[in-house]
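Checked the freezer inventory, then went back to the computational side. Two predictions to log before the end of the day. The first one is the construct we discussed on Monday; recording sequence and tokens without edits.
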Amino acid sequence: MRSIKHFFGKTGDGAWSVTEDGQIVFWNQAAVDLLGYAVEEAVDQYCWQLLVGLTPQGEPHCAPNCPVRQDIKNGSPVASVDIQLRHRNGHYVLTNMSTIPVPSEFEESFLVHLLRLRQQKWHAHQPFRIYLLGPLVVTRQDGSQVEGALWNRVKTRALMAYLVMQKGTAVSREQILDMLWPDLEYKAAMHNLNTTVYNLRRSLEPKLEKASQSRYLLYQNGCYRLAEASAYWLDIDAFESGIRQARQEMDMETAVKKYKAALSLYRGDYLYDLTDTHNWVRDQQFRLQEIYLRALAELASLYEKLDMAEEAIDTYQQILSIDCCQEASCRQLMSLFTKLGKRSEAIQVCQRLTQCLADELDILISDQTRALYNKIRDTV
């Protein structure tokens, strides 16, 4: 590792080296500056799990056996690629990455990635990148994150989220008033709307001379809409597209990689920072959480088919940490523990399920689950 540090420790490009299986073993200061992760936060992590790379179009790129490592193993030339990498603060940064194979005498390093910012190519077509899975995050053309006192107001972010979900369709003032201020009289609600529109325009474009000159939040004939909405990168679109691709993949190992890449976009429940104040969030939140839980179950099933029991157990436990009433996942987890000789753990899973169903839904476990429990309990 000393030789790698000697060559790349002080480069202007971000640089890190990884082992053959993708574990980071070197991370220079330029990488810290570009992506925000301290050396101790990056080293020993797997690069695809830490950085969750996406193509410029928002499709999953990073995976345990990514195209770059495949090319190196095959002795093929490795071209530089444009790739979006996840910054420590949660938003994505568009970069250009080149890769250098490392000779075997350089201890454990298999390859070195060199990284520099690249903003011109995709930002010309995508004014903003918008993240709705988890708290609302918006990044501008230059990669900076929308923030500040005006943005931090709940109604400012709620208006942005609501317009984003209209996908470019104009929304009347009256519809927005009913959605954001249903209990206020018209005059007071209109005052709040005008203030919130001003706050949102100033948040998205701080250098505007006049808020009414906004290029992105437009007003016409009593309606508001976001301009060029189809050009925005939206995490929900990438998430659902990634899940669809994973389900269509015939090769199980490749499907696992695609599931993991898509699931990594789910930072948390849809707009959970707005849930307590805006009921209109809940239906979409429930729909997306169901997609997430179903995809996790599908990933766990693939792990089982690939004889990756520990990974399957971890995934089923992840499901139950979100919704303890997922009875099918409980049965799979009970069966896995039993196969591994962990009978007491299997019984505990059923006991927790029984309590959860009673507390949350006031129902009993199904006959199918009870039969499995009795079989495990009575096994000598």
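The second is the one RB wanted added to the comparison set:
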Amino acid sequence: MTDSDALEPYGVRAVNRTLDILELLDEPSRPVSLGDVVAKTGLPKTSAFRYLATLERRGYVTRTASGSYLPTRSFGHPWESDLDELARRAQPMLEQLRDQFTETVSLGALDLHRAFYVSVVRPLRSVRVDINSGARAMIHCTAFGKALAARIPEERVREILDMQGMPRFTSRTITDPDRYLQELARVRRAGYAVNNGENEVGARCVALALTSTVIPLAVSLSAPADRMPMQRIQQVVAAFHEFDDAFGARGGTP
């Protein structure tokens, strides 16, 4: 601790440490590791971890698959340009999935309160599940919302549910937080998420959280339930894993 630190009121010092971390996170070059924060702030590793855990719990940072940290859109980080680039790279592969299954395929992400669609490709069929790019979606009743929520801390999930609510859209919608957390445990065990008419009657959706991107993303396929029997889901999930591998090989991370 420096002399100036000793003279600084604790509350102000804590704010300064938080701002140091946020400034480090705002550098666009790469995700930030716990070691980076320790080096930047001089904090002990346990203290730095507590700061990061608090920021993650409050929705200002998100943890990557490698354990590093990125700022979320709620912090005002220019994710939009990164997401636009990821959507551009993913577009041909999303179209390939659409053509393979002749159904609506989308790429989604998660911000402070809700999931949102980054890119959507639709089949030419007149009867289809219609989704718009940029549209918001609640995490409790969408497959890709579940897939992404399964990757964040339980406390953060509860905070999102408190903020967005858990309105009932169909008789299948999960409206109890504890039951939803049980659903996320099933998602983690299975490795993918399913929305079985929970957001729209007669629709079914399957989603997989990607491992090939630094920014947390999920790919999903939506269809009328009569065209997406439960036994077909494994075929879709296998295709999603191929998509994830191919996306990573093509430089999925901006």
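For RB: The radius of gyration is 20 Å. The chain has a mean pLDDT of 83. Let me know if you want it refolded.
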